[in-house]
């Protein structure tokens, strides 16, 4: 059987027969290409969120390093 559909309800790839006549009847089903595009879009959103988080962490790290340098500077006087 050629797997041509993706059942969103069960998160699995299914064949047309399973979709039409078996347990996936009435489940939310996409064609495989649509599902791939949807997951790709979700993945891109996650990557952007992650990049934003990394930038925030790096900014916080730079700030802490600056504070640490200042502290050592004053302690050395
Ligand atoms: Zn299903």
Automatic annotation (TrEMBL):
GO molecular function: zinc ion binding
Domain B box-type: 1-32
InterPro entries hit by this protein: Znf_B-box
Name of this protein: B box-type domain-containing protein
Source organism per UniProt: Chiloscyllium punctatum (Brownbanded bambooshark)
Any coiled-coil regions, as ranges: 36-70
Leader peptide range in chain numbering: none
Record keywords: Coiled coil, Metal-binding, Zinc, Zinc-finger
